[in-house]
């Protein structure tokens, strides 16, 4: 993974108590919590991944950044808990998976810190990929962060643009040995507003130093920065 944000979360101080969801499950809250965790493991929402370099260990850990479920169809009682916090979209064969993870230790001044994980992969067999496009490199990022006041409905959109991601310029390709590229970063969100992150990345065909075709936009399906129904 690129970047330094950990994908393994441990709540070190206290417990963030929240009302049971749904309220009818109040008497079985712990059981529902465990069932949801097991479903996420089985469905591939939580996956085993190699520990990041800053963990200083050679081990595989359970990543708590949710991924699109491998189960199809997804059980309705499970899907509702992931609504909007896990998104995926393919543009010209380049798939972008996004997910957010609340960091409850960082609660201050009416804002919460969220870590987010972005995963890039070029799909060789996707119909949107032009036949000539076998490799592409990320050039720039363009975030559009939309905040909606739930009381008034007023919206504000903040633009964040820059070169690369966490100082790097990932390359995706259709090569048999190509691996998906993941990077992680973070952002804050107001506790009393609805916040969604979307936008697009600009890729160039080939590489930045040896372009084989024009640049193109790869869309990001907006994902939400919100407190989850379950905290692990």
UniProtKB/TrEMBL annotation:
Gene3D superfamilies: ApaG domain (2.60.40.1470). PROSITE patterns: APAG. Residues 88-232 form the ApaG domain. InterPro entries: ApaG_domain (IPR007474), ApaG_sf (IPR036767). It comes from the Eukaryota. Transmembrane segments: none annotated. This is ApaG domain-containing protein.
């Amino acid at each position: 993974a690129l970047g330094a944000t950990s994908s393994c979360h441990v709540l070190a101080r206290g417990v963030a108590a929240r009302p049971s969801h749904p309220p009818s499950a109040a008497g079985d809250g712990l059981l529902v919590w465990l069932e949801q965790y097991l479903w996420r493991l089985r469905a591939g929402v939580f996956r085993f991944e190699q520990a990041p370099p800053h963990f200083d260990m050679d081990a595989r850990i359970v990543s708590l950044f949710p991924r699109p479920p491998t189960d199809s169809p997804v059980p309705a009682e499970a899907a509702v808990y992931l609504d909007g916090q896990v998104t995926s979209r393919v543009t010209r064969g380049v798939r972008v998976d996004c997910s957010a993870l609340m960091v409850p230790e960082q609660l201050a001044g009416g804002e919460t810190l969220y870590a987010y994980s972005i995963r890039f992969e070029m799909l060789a067999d996707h119909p949107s990929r032009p036949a000539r496009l076998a490799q592409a490199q990320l050039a720039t990022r363009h975030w559009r962060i939309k905040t909606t006041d739930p009381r008034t409905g007023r919206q504000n959109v903040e633009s964040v643009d820059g070169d690369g991601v966490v100082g790097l310029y990932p390359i995706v390709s259709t090569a048999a040995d190509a691996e998906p590229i993941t990077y992680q970063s973070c952002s804050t969100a107001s506790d009393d507003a609805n916040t969604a992150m979307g936008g697009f990345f600009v890729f160039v065909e080939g590489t930045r130093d040896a372009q084989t075709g024009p640049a193109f936009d790869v869309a990001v399906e907006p994902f939400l920065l919100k407190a989850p129904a379950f905290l692990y």
